[in-house]
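INTERNAL AUDIT FORM
Audit reference: QA-55
Scope: verify that the stored structure record matches its stored sequence.
Auditor: D.O.
Record contents follow.
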Amino acid sequence: MVLTFVLFGCHREEIKVYTVKQENDAIQPVNLCDGGIPGLVPHPDLKARLRMLCQLPPGWVEQAPTSMRVASFTVIGPHGQKADVGVIPLPEITGRELDMVNMWRSQLGLEQVKDDEIVQLTTRITIGSLDGKLFDIVGDLPPEGTKSPLRILVAMANYKGHTWFFKMLGDAELVAKEKDAFVKFVQSVKLPDDY
């Protein structure tokens, strides 16, 4: 399963609440800033409604989420570079970090790593009040038709039976520039306590 997160820009910090209701429930967006951007989609893997409160970094633009994503954003760099950020909660994935890292590495055309190498690739991070892990993976070669390699940032944490993934994928230079904003974003996240 591919987990992709996208970031795009708006020019002010915003606090957002995203709610996902299951199956046939009515979908109602909740936006603490201006109420004008839909931010809800049904998510087949969740048993109850989810809400994510977060602070949107400057320059990130909210996009319509997909069936897998609770939230989706785009970031555009000064030279037209792009990065995509997505937030995906899945049934809890414990002890599968190696599989996940190797999946992300394969997206960038990199060789797989072994179990004893995963510790070197893992950085501890807080996601809201949760202990999480951050992975930073940089491709070696630009994809065909582009000038820059790709880079992936993924923060993940387990919470109440789900693993929440926050993933940024895009131009390596832009992702490096946005890394601090990405870290602040995931640190600002508040996850629901009622599911």
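Auditor finding: record pair retrieved intact. The chain has one domain: 14-188.
Action required: none
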